[in-house]
Amino acid sequence: MSVNRSPLAIGFAAPALALIAVFFALPVAASLLLSLTDFDIYAIGDPATLRFVGLANYAHLLRDPLFWTALANTATFVAVGGPLSIAVSLAAALAVHARLTRFRSVFRTVFFLPVVTTLVAVAVVWRVLYHPRVGVLNGALAALGIPPLDWLGDARLAMPALILMAVWKSFGFNMVIFLAGLQAIPERLYEAARIDGAGAAAQLRHVTLPALAPTLLFVAISTGIGSFQLFAEPYVMTAGGPSNRTLSIVLLMYREGFRWWNMGYAAAVAFVLFAILLAVTALLWRLRPREAGA
Questions:
Q1: What is the mean pLDDT of residues 221-250?
Q2: How many CB atoms lie within 10 A of CB 2?
Q3: Can you give the pLDDT at residue 215?
Q4: Residues with Cβ < 8 Å from 190, sequence gap 6 or more?
Q5: Which of the residues 9, 56, 271, 280 has an alpha carbon 20 to 30 A from that of 229?
Q6: Over the stretch 239-273, which tens digit does the pLDDT of each residue have?
Q7: Cβ atoms 171, 162 nearer than 8 A
Q8: pLDDT tens digit sequence for 33-75
Q9: What is the average pLDDT score of the chain?
Q10: Structural domains in the chain?
Q11: Is 66 exposed, middle or buried (0-12, 13-18, 19+ CB in 10 A)?
Q12: φ/ψ of residue 249, rounded to 5
């Protein structure tokens, strides 16, 4: 006799659905309504001053040169830092996974330590490393006879400096994911490749990378989403400077919302960023390798 389990399933899922509705769906809906108003510090003191402005915030956003500067900076960070982080993560995972590597657990722990370290603390330490007079990096350059560089004060070097720090901070997380993917690849595939005369490079190209395609997709999407949310690095290290060369979309949203109290405009920035993330994620999903016959 068949039993209708739908009410029972809904009953078990109801508490989780309620929490999602209260702490996610309602705040998102409220933020969307907020983006259609001119909510500012005056509205906090007197709600009667709040006005519904429709899409005026979005229209102003598209005409704001500062938004396009922040978008270009964020896109640069994503386009350069994302692939670089994935490449470093994959290289580290391959090195740790290699049979000849000793002390694998030690290497995994050392590489993963930056991930669990507070981002603000890491940014403060790297700001000292980048210091033009007492920084370790300039000390190393001086030993090579190279004059010191103003890593965070030079408009040409500030973004590459942030990218370098961000890659060091985040590659350990992706490395662990790649390690899980590598351990799931059957050893018989490598044995067959070696019997056919494939070397290490051929095995990487024809066995490892195709088998890691789903893992690569997940890492690419998660890394892209995280890169678009660039905030703590420029906030702590450069404050968006010099000359707004490290101003990100999230930092712009923070300034508008919590420094100038233009909450409606800041909410509009947030939803534009959400639309960008949705479009990029959909593009990466469409570009995923498809199985034969799918």
A1: 94
A2: 4
A3: 93
A4: 203, 207
A5: 56
A6: 999 999 999 999 999 999 999 989 999 999 999 99
A7: no
A8: 999 999 988 887 788 888 999 999 999 999 999 999 999 999 9
A9: 89
A10: 58-286 (1.10.3720.10)
A11: middle
A12: -65, -40
Q: Two tokens at 215?
A: 């893992």
The pLDDT, as a whole number, for residue 238 is: 94
